[in-house]
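Appendix C. Worked example: Stress-response A/B barrel domain-containing protein
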Amino acid sequence: MKAFQWGKDVSIENLHQGFTNIFESTFDSKEAVAEYVAHPLHVEFANMFLGSLDKVLVIDYKPTSV
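Step 2, the predicted output written as structure tokens:
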């Protein structure tokens, strides 16, 4: 993993659709993402953490400069 950040929604537009927090991970390649997702510590943490959430949205994307 190249970088990890998190934060709470502070938007005044109220378009969060019930999502209140974001966790953003940055990787150097698709292979690095696959390695992270399959890592036993990530799987263990995700199984524990996800059980305490009402809903989750996961987005994998390749940034594009505009």
